TrEMBL record:
GO terms for biological process: xenobiotic detoxification by transmembrane export across the plasma membrane. This is Bcr/CflA family efflux transporter. GO terms for molecular function: xenobiotic transmembrane transporter activity. InterPro entries: Efflux_drug-R_Bcr/CmlA, MFS, MFS_dom, MFS_trans_sf.
Length: 431
């Protein structure tokens, strides 16, 4: 009996020490009814998180046309995506702590107003320099969607419930990119590229109204999170935590490939293969429909296999798709299916990966969910920024695609393997 008591005391001491090292306490609202349901958080969170992807999807069919309209170069127009990624990355590091300090709802409203104003500026742009600045601030405003949606999930749900909501958010996000390139191509064909930014203005207005009238405050604002010392301390703890960094890099490698492809594909499909802007928009439906199908299949299979096992399958699919990309683009003449079918398979694998790995990175940090979400989003968009910037320096978009997309796949798989080898955290940290 004495030995059993000693073992129990030792176990409790270890759990307390681990909790102290992570500066985390159990979630006191674990058994309380959430202020927003799983379905509402999934739909609303997906809507506000999708604004960034939709802004890219609407815009990409117009990129070659904007080269001609402003009398500029392909590299400069590609830079408009890089500046969008740059604004998104930098804003992530700020809006997350702001959401912890001032609350999810007011910060969402503020940042979406920035997005709305920047969309108006993009609409009125008369030269590439003005458009670059407008796209940067569009990225700044859109950054809040991903950060706040993840933070709301961590505020209200844990474990399998968290994975379910993340999966629903992923499905909602998939609908936007599925429709937006087609909508962008049709809009440009009938009304010109300026009309694309009219749609962005309307979307910005819709997101602001959603934040004002639908979103409820899910966090407990703590103004001390806004002080520079606690903020740097929080980011320092996250960067030092392998339980955060490995899942984050596993996600960033996967999504960085899609963001990089968004920079490259307009010039591959329209200039190398010869698709029109409308055909380009319709052609991207293959990739996004595979992602959506993967998300729906994940939701069906999760009860039987579990999110962790499905994530493993997702990374295997990503590696297989990476090998297909290298083979198709290096050994054969490019065609629509040779380019898009491997990318569609890649997207299918990502749908299996995102719910588990996003939840895994966020779970140990309930008291700094906004900061954790922000830093995770920063790494994700940094992948797109780095990939897009490198692609802009390479003259051959086919070579850029064959080089960069598989490289991101290897980074994702390697990070996932390292995460799987970590010892599990004590239950007190994961509640």
């Amino acid at each position: 009996m004495k030995m059993d008591k000693a073992l129990a005391d030792t176990r409790q001491a270890v759990e307390k020490q681990d909790a102290a090292e992570h500066k985390i306490i159990p979630d006191e609202t674990e058994n309380a009814a959430p202020v927003m349901s799983e379905r509402l958080v999934g739909v609303v969170g997906g809507f506000i998180a999708a604004i960034g992807a939709v802004s890219m999807g609407l815009y990409t069919p117009a990129m070659p046309e904007i080269v001609q309209a402003f009398g500029t170069t392909e590299a400069m127009v590609k830079l408009t995506l890089s500046t969008f990624f740059g604004g998104f990355c930098l804003a992530q590091l700020v809006c997350g702590p702001m959401a912890d300090g001032w609350g999810r709802r007011p910060v969402t409203i503020g940042y979406m107003l920035v997005y709305l104003i920047a969309s108006v500026a993009a609409l009125l742009s008369s030269n590439i320099e003005t458009l670059l600045v407008a796209r940067f601030f569009q990225g700044v405003g859109a950054a809040v969607g991903v950060t706040v949606s993840r933070a709301m999930v961590r505020d209200l749900f844990t474990n399998e419930a968290s994975a379910r909501v993340m999966n629903l958010i992923g499905i909602v996000i998939a609908v936007g990119p599925a429709v937006s390139p087609t909508l962008g191509g049709l809009t440009m064909h009938y009304f010109g590229w300026h009309a694309i930014f009219v749609i962005m203005v309307l979307l910005g207005l819709a997101v602001v109204l959603t934040a004002v009238f639908v979103i409820r405050e899910t966090g407990t604002p703590d103004r001390t999170r806004l002080h520079i010392k606690p903020l740097l301390s929080a980011y320092g703890r996250l960067l030092r935590s392998r339980h955060f960094m490995y899942p984050t890099l596993a996600v960033a490698g996967a999504t960085g490939a899609l963001y990089t492809a968004a920079t490259i594909l307009p010039f591959v499909l329209m200039q190398k293969i010869g698709l029109s802007p409308t055909e380009f928009g319709l052609g991207l439906l293959l990739q996004t429909s595979f992602y959506l199908s993967g998300g729906l299949l994940f939701r069906v299979l999760m009860g039987r296999f579990g999110a962790r096992e499905l994530a493993t399958a997702g990374y295997v699919i990503i590696l297989a798709a990476s090998a297909m990309i290298i083979t198709m683009l290096s050994l054969f003449e490019p065609t629509y299916l040779r380019v898009m079918l491997p990318m569609a398979c890649y997207a299918f694998g990502i749908a299996f990966v995102m719910p588990q790995m996003t939840s895994a990175g966020m779970a140990p940090f309930p008291q700094m969910a906004g900061s954790a979400s922000a830093l995770m989003g920063f790494f994700q968009m940094s992948g797109g920024l780095v990939g897009g910037s490198v692609a802009a320096t390479l003259s051959d978009p086919l070579f850029a695609m064959a080089l960069l997309i598989p490289s991101f796949g290897v980074l994702a798989m390697g990070s996932y393997i390292l995460w799987r080898r970590l010892p599990p955290l004590p239950p007190v940290i994961l509640r």
